[in-house]
Amino acid sequence: MVHDKNTPMAQADGQSASDSDSNSNSTDNPSTRTSRRRFLTGSAAAVGAGAAAAVGFPSIAVAQTTTLRFQSTWPNQDIFHEFAADYVRIVNEMSGGRLRLNLLPAGAVVGALQLQDAVISGALDGGHGVTAYWYGKHKAFSLFGTPPPFGWDAHQFLAWFWNSGGMELYNELLANLELPLVGYQTGPMPTQALGWFKEPIASAEDLRGLKYRTVGLAADLMREFGAAVTIMGGGDIVPAMDRGLLDGAEFNNPSSDRLLGFPDVSKTWMLRSYHQDCEAFEIIFNKTKHDSLPEEFQAILQYAAKAASSEMYWKAMERYPKDLQAMREEQGVQTYITPDSVLQAQLDAWNTVIENESQDPFFKKVIDHQREYCERVVGWHLEGTAPKTPAYRHFFGKEPTDTSTIL
Fold it and tell me: What whole-number distance in Å separates Cα of residue 345 and Cα of residue 287?
């Protein structure tokens, strides 16, 4: 160890360095040499012990690393699994590796629709999915992931969840059902397409009798049109369409749909719909496991959900348009704008779904809370926000729908 001669340690000898240089007798004195030897020997031992302790710290930190088994509800090739991986990366980086999530794809431990039960039982410590998958336990689950189209977008939905009472209602639902979970909403999803079909959907009547895949309250909505609805995980949809088990299906976005292989089984994609006008992901953890973690780790899990939310949307804005263009130009996909008559019929059907499900007091409590929020917040947003289509038309000299067929 090297000490500056002006530091207190340099003075611990009882003399300054300059005094030592000017008085050669002091350094030649046997007793002085012995004293200095003992001091230096002791100092070296102390330094050695300190160095050993410093070297030991990383191994102690590694030994104390907490690893959680974390599965997504998405196939490996889906961009949604990539979004789950982004959340995992952020958690691992924020914790400096002391808390690590071990990410697995759908099916690694359980199927997509069994994720919540696996987290509750402790077979998994946590997972990444959507609340609509659990609406079989209570219809209100869908309200926390795929709510009715009250004019809001997914950013406004997440604002409701995090800042305006949504999280408290979500936790109340978990408590009512005695589900030992801790969860967060994350990742705003843009409006989803009506889906992939054999032929374009020109009217609401075209949906009658169709074997159709969707999830959550959208299943109830499509049943109002007379569709035969099947609920299944993302990785099962394209094989089902290929075998003729489905006549039509929706999943989510251009990147996911392309990666999952939808263009291989259909060339007709209907854009725009009110069945899932806004949606967000859900991150859940086993409550016992979560509550056993240090408060620092609990905070990281929550703040990482917020950070991943923004990162996901930024990535989506870059990837989704490119994949849509690639499907059109390279895979022969024809896109169609869902007719206004179908959209209006969806809104009318939502009235029926909401009225039917509001017989449940808790469902009604959440719906009323969301409606009050949207009347206030969406009203403000629509009043003050300039319409985007005229600006797009002005600067680019075309309609935003020029690449799709208007039915």
Answer: 41
